[in-house]
Automatic annotation (TrEMBL):
Domain of life: Bacteria
Family designation: Belongs to the class-I pyridoxal-phosphate-dependent aminotransferase family.
Pfam families per the UniProt record, alphabetical: Aminotran_1_2
Cofactor(s) demanded: pyridoxal 5'-phosphate
Domain Aminotransferase class I/classII large: from-to ranges: 31-380
Alphabetical UniProt keywords: Aminotransferase, Pyridoxal phosphate, Transferase
Gene Ontology MF, one: kynurenine-oxoglutarate transaminase activity
Gene Ontology cellular-component annotations: cytoplasm
Listed name of the protein: Methionine aminotransferase
Amino acid sequence: MPNRLKHDSKLPGNKTSIFSVMSKMANDHNAINLSQGFPNFETDQKLKDLVSKAMNDGYNQYPPDSGVQELREQISLKIKSLYGKHYDENSEVTVTSGATEALYTAITAFVKKDDEVIVLKPAYDTYEPTIMLSGGKPIQIQLKGENYKVDWNEVKSAITSRTKMIIINTPHNPSGTILTEEDMLQLQDILSDTNIILLSDEVYEHLIFDKEQHHSASKFPELSERSIVCASFGKTFHNTGWKTGYCVAPEKLMKEIRKIHEVTVFSVNHPMQRAYAEYLKNPDNYLELSKFYQTKRDLFLNLIKDSKFTYTPSRGTYYQLLNFSEITDEKDVIFAERLVKENGLASIPVSVFNINNKDNKQLRFCFAKTDDTLEKAAEILCKL
Ligand code: PMP
Ligand code: GLN
């Protein structure tokens, strides 16, 4: 019998994520991996002990679908102390399977067929496929210049009666730039009197350098009323493999998000939630992070200062963009591949996140690595 199974792909344009491609290439070629964003050092032993304790104490069955109460309380307290906004832990905070699920549920809960969602490019690679799975249409706007600034007039002109949502990401992956208070106020102004939801991806909120401040959407009263803010414990506590994050939003929005969360994952791993709830009681565990990563950024930049790469120092995230136009005029994807295969160093070519894959001759390097790894990577970069 011939196989009559036929189906059209729901995401025909989607290829394997660049993060999987580059990490696999790094493994296959035994290369130093500064591509996918994860640390190559351990999460705090205290946190691992708290997870073991939770398991041994019997927290091994389903937790409440919205997350462990104590963890939601701690999240609410943290946001109140940092950004001054109170989110009710019972109705406005949900623990998710990483920020990825928070973003997925937030988009899926609201975007319907033919709705438009404004996406600032280069953008993290899950936003647009998720919008399209919901039948929505991503409206791409390119960030401008070396510093990836938002042209708010362009954003304003892109708004139509079909605009359902706008997605921002600060500190920004892959560029390492941040939105200023002025940016957020302009956004608040543009969105006032509209029915548009703001989806704010703030997974790098605790990785911000040179005494800059993170301007969370939750800090701006008018903006927060229409905002869903997504966060990731994996990024903050060096355990991306635990895939735990959360989102916060006003009750009216959260009610809808929880409907999708329930049918997507229902609830998130229980022992990790118990551990994070305890660990969050000491704010130093996240407030010290910027200093820690700034030292790594400075070490990396100092080590490559005599190389042919040019750069603007990253202001947030654990990524540094390096421009290679003084080394080669190859396309970034080609150069990135050659760098792994011939030189043993993996990075991420930025063009994959740009509109029409525009190539600005930039590679993204993750500096969430031991000093020893950064030194070895810099040695390779300086020889090019
Ligand atoms: N948003 C951005 C901008 C990211 O870089 C990442 C990768 N951590 C995520 C969302 C997803 O976070 P998580 O690993 O918690 O799912
Ligand atoms: N957020 C990480 C990065 O930008 C990777 C996440 C993933 O592997 N999907 O590198």
